[in-house]
Specification:
This protein is mainly α. The chain is 73% helix and 0% strand. The protein has helices spanning 4-33, 39-58, 70-75, 79-101, 109-134, 149-180, 192-197, 200-216, 222-242, 253-259, 262-278, 284-315, 325-353. Helix 8 packs parallel to helix 10 and helix 9 runs antiparallel to helix 11. The longest helix has 32 residues, at 149-180. The radius of gyration is 22 Å and the shape is globular.
Length: 365
């Protein structure tokens, strides 16, 4: 049902992701310090088996539908669009993974060729799904989805926000590792568990924000909630960009960890409600799938771009030892500035795209 019940349902969905990440992070630190990291994979396998059993018991049965046939399988799915999109994302992910280790690898014939093919496939996909729509045939991601400004805006915002958030997690963990082995600073040695606990404040904030957003979203304009949370989140990379490695964790890093999930967690709940508000019921699943795909791609894209920037800055450092804490810190600091710029760009997208969003999650008869 629409209204507060659905709002809270979406908020708990987002909160569950944060809670699961928090438990996994702390449990990983405990396992590394005790029985070893390998047992974690066995635990994950067992958890998935339990989740499968619960899904079979808890999830409601599908309503009766037209029987599946080979003819429907052939004509009702945009196979060409799926092949084009999958090939494009696969090739792009491979090249991004390759250049993450060394940006000069983009000059290799294989990577250059694959990148060119991936870039060409993007307009090819747009033209193909446009043709499918004009002829009334199934389209994997219809171009008409992007004609709704609010949906386009939240997709762009989640692309940027998820990229910055996950890059923050990655580079802050590297920074913690850097500080623990630094020879020119008096820094306490941190165990894997102690390092993982440094992220818990942000995860607790993210969990609380998801619940609070579900309870209050119908009372405030969505664009205000998203923009305020995104501005607050911009403070996280800014603090890390300005940080002095000799400062205490509680002076700047703690507040950075508190702020880094603010935008992504508020945006997740509000975006889910925008999707169900602006699209008919038959399009909810498709729009939600596109939104989540964009979020995951934003993670890959953000980490890859920032890793390339960090490695290039470190190699250009004046320090002759490119593995020294000073040289590595130069690269990390630039990535944090890049993350700050990314969050400001996210704010700009929200100002333009969500200016007419108004309140979402309202109860309708």
């Amino acid at each position: 049902p629409n209204g507060k019940t659905r709002n809270v349902g979406f908020s708990f969905l987002g909160a569950g992701q944060v809670l699961g990440f928090c438990i996994g992070l702390v449990l990983g630190g405990v396992l590394i310090e005790t029985v070893g990291w390998r047992i974690g994979y066995y635990i994950c396998g067992g958890v998935h088996v339990i989740a499968l059993a619960l899904a079979c018991w808890v999830l409601p049965e599908d309503r009766k539908r037209e029987a599946t046939s080979w003819q429907r399988l052939y004509f009702d799915i945009d196979w060409v669009g799926a092949i084009i999109a999958s090939s494009c994302l696969g090739l792009l992910s491979y090249v991004l993974a390759s250049v993450t280790g060394s940006s000069s690898s983009i000059k290799e014939p294989l990577n250059a060729t694959l990148m060119t093919v991936a870039v060409v496939l993007v307009p090819g996909f747009v033209l193909w799904v446009g043709r499918q729509e004009r002829h009334g045939k199934p389209a994997l991601i219809p171009n008409s989805l992007w004609k709704i400004p609010a949906f386009t805006a939240v997709c762009l915002m989640v692309l940027l926000s998820w990229g910055v958030m996950n890059s923050m997690e990655y580079f802050v963990s590297l920074l913690i590792s850097l500080l623990t082995r630094s020879s020119y600073q008096e820094v306490q040695q941190l165990s894997a568990l102690q390092a993982s606990l440094r992220f818990v404040p942000g995860l607790l904030v993210g969990f609380s924000l998801n619940i609070a957003t579900g309870l209050l979203v119908h009372k405030f304009p969505a664009n205000y909630l998203v923009l305020i949370s995104t501005l607050l989140c911009a403070g996280s990379p800014l603090l890390m960009a300005l940080i002095n490695p000799q400062w205490s964790y509680w002076y700047a890093a703690f507040w950075s960890m508190v702020l880094y999930p603010v935008s992504a967690d508020v945006l997740f709940t509000i975006s889910s409600l925008i999707i169900v508000d602006v699209f008919p019921a038959k399009t909810h699943a498709l729009a939600g799938a596109v939104f989540n795909t964009v979020a995951q791609f934003g993670t890959s894209l953000g980490i890859a771009i920032m890793a390339v920037v960090a490695s290039n800055v470190t190699r250009g450092s004046g320090d002759p030892d490119k593995e020294s804490p000073a040289a590595l810190m130069e690269g990390y600091r630039v990535t944090f500035w890049l993350g700050f710029g990314g969050m400001l760009l996210t704010v700009a997208v929200g100002v333009v795209g969500l200016r007419k969003a108004g309140k979402v999650g309202l109860k309708r008869e």
